[in-house]
Amino acid sequence: MKIRYYADAEIREMHNHAIRLLAQLHDDHDITVEIDRIDEQHDPIPDFPGEVRRLTPEEVYERDLKRNRSLNAVIEQTPSEAFKRYGTLDIAGNVAVIDEEGTVQWASTLPGYADGYGPGAEAQTAMDFLEDITTSPSNRICVECLGLLDGDENFCPNCGNDLS
Ligand SMILES: [Zn+2]
User: Fold this and answer.
1) What residues does each domain of the chain span?
2) Residue 93, CA distances (Å) to 15, 29, 41, 49, 78 in order
């Protein structure tokens, strides 16, 4: 399992913050992190502790998001509603959890700056997700195996990690 950041978030500070949190997840929990730069707007990313690739939004959408049933089951909107609003791909700034087979199991659907969009918005933003899992114990994901959690477990149902 790994965490993938679709970069760059439009706002530089959000983008830099996401990179810092990903590096911290790698250092603290040995989580594999990577960046797909699909909309390069900011500086080069030196010293990132994971792979940094250049891709197009179309490549990412086709590979990760389009008709992804696992993702469809855990986000409120369909992937096309969330990432292809009005026919235009809008993916940069989001993060995804990728399983061993390379399938996206969860992705944020609201970019980090979307604070204040209403109740429940924090559950859908990239930044809240990254901040939550860097401040373990997280109730959203197990930092040992990156298994998704409902939030009320005492032990990870996937690997048995103590979440209390
Ligand atoms: Zn686990």
Assistant:
1) 2-134
2) 7, 22, 11, 19, 18
> Taking phi first (over 0 means left), then psi (-120 to 50 degrees means alpha), and beta for anything else, what does residue 114 get?
alpha
CB contact at 8 A, 146 and 3: yes
Strand pairing report for 95-98 and 84-85: unpaired
Q: Read off the DSSP letter of residue 138.
A: P
pLDDT tens for 78-124 read 999 999 988 899 999 999 999 999 999 999 998 766 655 667 777 88
Question: Tell me: the pLDDT tens digits for 5-30?
Answer: 999 999 999 999 999 999 999 999 99
Distance 96 CA to ligand 1 centre (A): 17
- Centre of ligand 1 to C-alpha 118, Å, is 30
Q: Report every protein residue that has its C-beta within 5 angstroms of ion ligand 1.
A: 142, 144-145, 147, 156, 158-159, 161
Q: How far apart are CA 5 and CA 50, in angstroms?
A: 11
